[in-house]
Amino acid sequence: MEILVCVKRVPDTAENEFELNSAGNDLDRDDLVYSVNEWDNYAVEEAIQIVDNVGGSVTVVTVGDDESEEVLRREMAMGANNGVLLSDDAFEGSDGKGIAAILKAEVEKGKYDLILTGAQADEGAGQVGGMLAAMLDYPYASLVNKIEVKDDTSIHVGREIEGGNQEMNEIQLPCVLSIQTGINEPRYVGIRGIRKVASVDVPVKGAGDLGIDPAAVGKDGAKTRRVDYFVPDLGDGAEMLEGSTEEIIEKLIEKLKAKGGL
Amino acid sequence: MTQMFAYIPFKNGAAEDVALEYPDAAKKIDPSAEVTAVAAGTGADLDKVADAMTRIYKQVIKIDHADLAYPNAEQVRKALLDVLPHDAIILLPHDTFGMDLAPGLAVKMDSAYAADIVDFEGLDGQDLKMIRQELGGAVYTHVTSDVSSGAVITVRPGSFAPTEDTAAGGSVVDKSGDVKDLSAKRKFLEVVVAEVGDVDITKADVLVSVGRGIEEEENIEIAQELADAMGAVVSCSRPIVDAKWLEKSRQVGTSGQTVKPKVYMAMGISGSFQHLGGVKGNPFIVAVNKNPKAPIFQVADVGIVEDILEFMPELTEAVKAL
Prior knowledge:
Number of domains of chain B: 2
Largest sheet of chain A: 9 strands, mixed
CATH topology of the largest domain in chain B: Rossmann fold
Order of helices and strands of chain A: EEEHEHEHEHEEEEHEHHEEH
Radius of gyration of chain A: 22 Å
Structural class of chain B: alpha/beta
Shape of chain A: globular
CATH architecture of chain A: 3-Layer(aba) Sandwich
Number of helices of chain B: 9
Number of strands of chain B: 17
CATH architecture of the largest domain in chain B: 3-Layer(aba) Sandwich
CATH class of the largest domain in chain B: Alpha Beta
Oligomer: heterodimer
Distance between the termini of chain A: 56 Å
Number of domains of chain A: 1
Helix content of chain B: 25-40%
Strand order of the largest sheet of chain B: 9-8-7-10-6-1-4-5-11
C-alpha cells in the first residue's frame, strides 16, 4: 500500500497562550511554539501501522515555508519513509481549496493507494481532505477512527459519528480519509530518531515543478479570506472565586450545597 | 436576490435542531432572501420531515431516492448537484455529516467554502462577512467569502436562534425526478452503537469531569476520590478517552455522551464547543483551570484559577470534613 499523509505545522494550542498583536488584527507570533498538528500524528501512525501489516511505503507531504521541513522530519523520525515539502511564495494566503489544489498536483506525480489527512488543523475547518478527494474524483470519508484493509481494491473504515457511535463504510481505493484522534496511540519520537533522519534529503517543489498556475492558488486564487483575528466581548462569564485556596473552597462548598452538588 | 438553501438533516422522522436555526442565520446573511429547505432521503420518514418543514420554510425541496435511506455523503452530494443551482448559497450543519459532505460539495459546485461559522455580518457586494473560531476556540476571526459563484457554508449547530415562527404555510416540491445516477465508490455498511460502560454518566446528578489538566493517567484517582466524597461520577473530555485513560462511555461531548447533571465540575477542561455540546439542561458549572483565559470561564457559573492537581485533594478533604 502506497500511502501519502498530508501534515501541517501549526501553533501548539496546548503550549501557547494566544494574544493579539499591538494592532489588534493578527496573533502576536513572536514567541509562538509550533508543532505538528495533533490529528496528523494519528494519521502518520495509522499509515505506518498499515504498511507494517501489508507492506508499501509512507510519504509525508506538507505545504509551507522552510520551517515546515521540521514537521516532515519529525514524522519521518516516527517511521515515514519519504518527505516532500511543497513551498513557493505563490502558495502564501491560499484558502482550503488552494491548499487542496497544490496537494492534488503532488498526488498526481505519484501513485498512491491511500491518502490520509488529519481530521482538522489550527483553523478548525476540516476541509482539505474532502476537497482533495473531490478534485481527484476519489471517494472520501471524514473523521475516520478505524481502518481495515480488505484487499488491493477496497478497505473498510469506521467514521466517528454522534454519541460515540461508529459508522462503517466500504470504500474503493484509491481514496482520501481524514483521521480522527484516538484511532491509535502515536508512537513516541526520541532525539535519536530525529537525528537519524536529520541528513535525509527532503525535496522541495514549487509551483513550476508541480505545474500549478500561480494565479489559481495563493491569496489571488482564494475565494475565502481571513480578514483579522479578534477576541470578542463575551458578557459576564463566570463569577471568579478569589482569595486563598481555603477561602475559595469555603465559598465553593456553600454554592455547591445551594445547587445540589453536595 | 441571493438564492439560499438549507440542508435539513433528520433522524427517525424528526429534523435535527439546526433546521430551526437556519432561518436566523439566513436573515443575517441577507434579510431579503428566501430560504428553501432541502430534505433528502426516502419513504415515510422523509415525507414526515418535509411536511414538518413547511411550517418553517415557504418552500421545501424533497429528494426521495431509495439509495438515500442512509445519508451517505457521496450520494447526497450527487443528488444536490443534480437539483440545486450551482451559484446558490447552501447552508449545512458543521457536524459529522456536514464535515463529510460540504468540502467536496464546494469543489464540485466550484463555489466558495466557509466552515463552522458562528455568526454572519452580512453581504457587502459579493463579499459575505462571517465570524468563526480558530485554534480550538482561543481566538475569533472575521472571514470573507466571494459568493458571486455561490457558497457552501457550514454553520455551528446551536449558534443561531431557533425560529419560533412555525406558520410559514410552505409547500413541498418533489424534485426526485431530477436525480440521476447515485452510484458511489463508498458504501454504507452499518452503524456500530457505542458500548455502555459500567457507569452511566448520563444518569448522574453531579459529574466531576476531567480534561487535559489531569496530565497523567494515575491522577484520575484524584478525581475519583473527589467524586466519591461528593457522591458524584467521574466523566471526561475527549483527550482522556483518546489516551485510553477512561472508556469512551465516560466521554462528554458531541462525539461522546450528552449529559444533564445538576452540577458539572469541569476540572482542567478548556471548554471546546464539541465538549460543551454534550452538556445540556443548564447545569451549575464549576470550572477549575490554571489558565485564566480558558474558554470554559466564559460559560461556567463559577470559575477558579488553580491547578486541579493541587485543588482537588484539598476540596476532597474539605468535603469529607463536612
